[in-house]
Amino acid sequence: xxxxxxxxxxxxxxxxxxxxxxxxxxxxxxxxxxxxxxxxxxxxxxxxxxxxxxxxxxxxxxxxxxxxxxxxxxxxxxxxxxxxxxxxxxxxxxxxxxxxxxxxxxxxxxxxx
Length: 113
Description:
Blueprint: E1 38-43, E2 52-56, H1 62-76, E3 80-83, E4 86-90, H2 94-103, E5 108-110
Parallel strand pairs: 1-5
Antiparallel strand pairs: 1-2, 2-4, 3-4
C-alpha cells in the first residue's frame, strides 16, 4: 500500500491543503464544514432585559458575514453587530430573519421559545 492510502488517526500538526500545499489555504478547498444547523434565537442575558435576536452556526468568512449582516439590517430596519462569528440584531426579528435567510438560500431553524 502506498503512504497516501492511509488516513491519519491523530496528529498535532495543522492540516495542509492538498491543492496549494499551505496550512492556511488560499484556494478555498479546506473551508471548515458547518458544525450544526444555522439557528435563529433570542437572548436577553447580560443585556439588562433588552432582547436581541442571534444567528449562530454560520460558517462564512468575516467579509461574507459582514455583508450578510448589512443586508439583513437594511431589510429589517434595525441595528445589529457581528460578535465572535454570530450575528446579533436589536429586537425580536426571528420570523423576519427566517424569511430573509431562506430567500438568500440559507436554511435555518428557530431556536428557543
